[in-house]
Every structure is written in C-alpha cells, then in structure tokens.
Design goal:
By secondary structure, the chain is an alpha+beta fold. The protein contains two helices and four strands, in the order H-E-E-E-H-E. The longest helix is centred in the last third of the chain and has 12 residues.
Amino acid sequence: MDQISQRKVTDAGFTILRPDDQPSPRIKYKSIAQHEWKTFAKFETKAARDRELAKYLELSTFISD
C-alpha cells in the first residue's frame, strides 16, 4: 500500500499495523493521529509478536499493511 492509500485508510478511522524485525520483533502502526510509522509494541520473540498481531487484526478497526 502506498502512502496516499495509507493516508486515506487512516483518515477513514482505521489503524494500520505492520510486523517488523529490526532492531527487535515489534509491531509498528500508523493511525489518524500518527501519520509516520511508530512502535506499537515490542516482543521477545517473533512468535509472540505474530500471536499478538493476529489478535489485533480480528478487531474491525485494525488492518495489516
């Protein structure tokens, strides 16, 4: 998804989540109040990150990039 599309989605009230591995396993996000990627949560393992990400993506206001 390009930046223009991301902006449209966040302006519609959604929060975009993205898994990241550097510098450690974490989830990054963009929202209507935050238009740059910021760390949402940090994790000890990738598996823990993926489990938590799956929980958030079940909610109607979160989407994956």
